[in-house]
């Protein structure tokens, strides 16, 4: 027993800082997503992370700082998932579709991340809401670039920066709101949810009412 | 002077409670929208309302209660403006257009209301975020009914409750996010902003990229 403890302690000591931090953040996202910011305790997070409380504070600071570190990491992962997923050299509809798939794919696979990032951060307000607003701003900027590029490629006349930016704001808000709705209807498959938003923003209600629907395999 | 004060006091006393409360809420929305919840003081609100601080507390309670009363009144006004604006017996596109016009018309005319309702309530979190979530839920329910009715009228097959509700969630999120963007670009005319969202959700990017745009006078 004593020998095993020694081995464990030795192994624990050898863990690089990055690995320790990842363990802590994984545990924190799990606990925050289940209990919310207020009810989550550093005791529970340290237990789930398998790390002592003093170590926890030493690594990532107070509960507020830990929550901020969680929202930062999860937002970076989300943005990376979308950036990786979007097939930028394809036709505009494929770009949009791959982007939506990546977004809803991430949310579906990392519900705890989305809960912390979106719902918990919103319900906390203050600095967390400011973080979230900053993330939204970056997402809108990214989507606005895609929209502007698609408009240029398609030769749409008179699509100014403001048109692209406001369309992007609407699209990001729609995605966010639909992902939030999805949290309460978790049995819906990711592809179905993504296809609904694709149909709404690519085809529009006008086409849908006329029975025209967008399919992944549709000709452009 | 003394006589005038007496007259004023007499007039003040005769004001019905509803009128007093409206004065207070008008002042509170103004102050909260300019300064935010934290920086706003009951002193300033009582000054703007032209009402003593003890009276202010007697009528609407603490600053938290006053803020909640503001978000409730403004959300009721917003919902009423939309319900009044939507021409429900018209074609689906006219219904959507009149609804969007009413929404952006309200936000444009009552920027302070929208600021308090959306941005301040979001950045405060806690009970205010819960109020806002409740309002969003009601808005989504209302829009989902419209979508479901339009789908039935147009004979769109297989539009289930969940389709309508999730489309409505996306639409409400898009409107909210665009109105939020508009706060930072206040020189854009209300009709332009409304037309952008109309084009996005009625025509869709697919039609826009092909140069098909929705106009208020377009044939159906």
Automatic annotation (TrEMBL), chains A, B:
Q: Which UniProt keywords apply?
A: DNA-binding, Transcription, Transcription regulation
Q: Where is the DNA-binding region?
A: 41-60
Q: Where is the signal peptide?
A: none
MF terms (GO), sorted A to Z = DNA-binding transcription factor activity; transcription cis-regulatory region binding
InterPro entries attached to this UniProt entry = DesT_TetR_C, Homeodomain-like_sf, HTH-type_TetR-like_transc_reg, HTH_TetR, Tet_transcr_reg_TetR-rel_C_sf
Domain (HTH tetR-type) ranges? 18-78
* PROSITE patterns in alphabetical order: HTH_TETR_2
Give any single GO term for biological process: negative regulation of DNA-templated transcription
Task: Report what the protein is called.
Answer: Transcriptional regulator, TetR family
- Which organism's genome codes for this protein? Actinosynnema mirum (strain ATCC 29888 / DSM 43827 / JCM 3225 / NBRC 14064 / NCIMB 13271 / NRRL B-12336 / IMRU 3971 / 101)
């Amino acid at each position: 027993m004593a020998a095993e403890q020694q081995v464990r302690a030795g192994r624990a000591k050898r863990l690089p800082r990055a690995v320790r931090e990842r363990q802590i953040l994984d545990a924190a996202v799990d606990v925050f997503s289940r209990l919310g910011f207020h009810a989550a305790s550093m005791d529970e997070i340290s237990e789930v992370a398998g790390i002592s409380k003093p170590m926890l504070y030493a690594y990532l600071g107070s509960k507020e700082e830990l929550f901020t570190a969680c929202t930062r990491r999860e937002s970076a992962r989300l943005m990376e998932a979308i950036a990786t997923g979007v097939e930028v050299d394809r036709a505009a509809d494929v770009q949009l579709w791959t982007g939506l798939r990546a977004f809803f794919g991430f949310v579906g696979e990392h519900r705890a991340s989305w809960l912390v990032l979106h719902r918990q951060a919103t319900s906390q307000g203050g600095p967390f809401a400011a973080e979230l607003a900053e993330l939204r701003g970056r997402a809108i900027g990214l989507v606005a670039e895609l929209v502007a590029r698609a408009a240029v490629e398609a030769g749409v006349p008179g699509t100014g920066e403001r048109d692209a930016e406001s369309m992007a704001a609407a699209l990001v808000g729609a995605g966010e709101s639909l992902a939030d709705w999805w949290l309460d209807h978790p049995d819906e498959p990711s592809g179905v949810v993504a296809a609904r938003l694709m149909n709404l923003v690519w085809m529009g209600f006008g086409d849908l009412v006329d029975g025209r629907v967008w399919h992944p395999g549709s000709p452009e």
